[in-house]
Task: inverse folding
C-alpha cells in the first residue's frame, strides 16, 4: 500500500516537473476531448492539461494514504473503549488491596454504662486461623457512645470487639467483615 502511494506521488510530481521544464520545447497545442453522450466537449491547451494530469496523479497518492482514515479511527475508538473497560476492571480489582480506616460505634443496651469497660480489638486477615490483638487501638467513650477507630484494614479482614466490665462481665460484638460499620454488643 505504501509503495502504491509513493509511486503515484512520484509519477505525478514527475509529470508536473516535465510539463514545467519541457513545456516550451514541445509547443502549446490545443487538445479537444469530446464527450458526446454526455453532451459537452472540452478544449484546452495541452501543457496545462498534462500539468493537471500530473497534479491529479500526485493527489491519488495522497488519497490512497488517507482513504482508510475513518475505519482506522473507528477501530482506534473501539480499542479505546476496550482499554477503558479493562482499566475500570483493574481499578475495581485494586480496590481489594486498598487499606481501610473505620470508625466503629459500639452500641450497648441503654442500661449499660460502658465508661469503665476495657475494650480490646482483635483482627483476623483473610486466610489466618486466629484473631490477633491490636494493642495500638483505644476506645473512646463520651456522651454520644463508645467509638473505636480501626486503621490499616484490608478487604475481607474480620474484626472482633471484646469489652470487659468492672464486674467481670464480658461483652462481645458479632464478628465484622469489612466494610460494616456498626456493631451490637451482647452480654455473653
Result:
Amino acid at each position: 500500500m505504501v509503495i502504491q502511494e509513493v509511486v503515484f506521488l512520484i509519477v505525478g510530481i514527475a509529470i508536473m516537473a516535465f510539463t514545467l521544464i519541457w513545456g516550451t520545447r514541445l509547443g502549446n497545442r490545443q487538445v479537444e476531448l469530446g464527450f458526446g453522450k454526455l453532451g459537452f466537449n472540452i478544449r484546452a491547451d495541452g501543457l496545462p492539461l498534462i500539468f493537471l494530469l500530473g497534479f491529479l496523479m500526485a493527489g491519488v497518492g495522497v488519497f490512497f494514504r488517507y482513504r482508510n482514515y475513518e475505519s482506522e479511527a473507528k477501530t482506534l475508538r473501539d480499542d479505546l473503549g476496550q482499554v477503558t473497560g479493562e482499566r475500570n476492571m483493574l481499578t475495581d480489582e485494586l480496590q481489594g488491596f486498598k487499606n481501610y480506616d473505620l470508625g466503629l460505634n459500639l452500641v450497648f443496651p441503654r442500661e449499660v454504662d460502658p465508661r469503665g469497660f476495657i475494650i480490646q480489638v482483635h483482627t483476623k486477615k483473610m486466610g489466618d486461623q486466629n484473631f490477633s490483638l491490636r494493642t495500638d487501638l483505644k476506645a473512646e467513650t463520651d456522651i454520644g457512645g463508645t467509638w473505636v477507630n480501626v486503621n490499616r484494614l484490608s478487604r475481607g479482614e474480620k474484626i472482633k470487639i471484646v469489652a470487659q466490665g468492672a464486674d467481670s462481665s464480658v461483652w462481645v460484638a458479632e464478628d465484622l467483615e469489612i466494610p460494616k460499620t456498626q456493631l451490637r454488643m451482647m452480654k455473653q
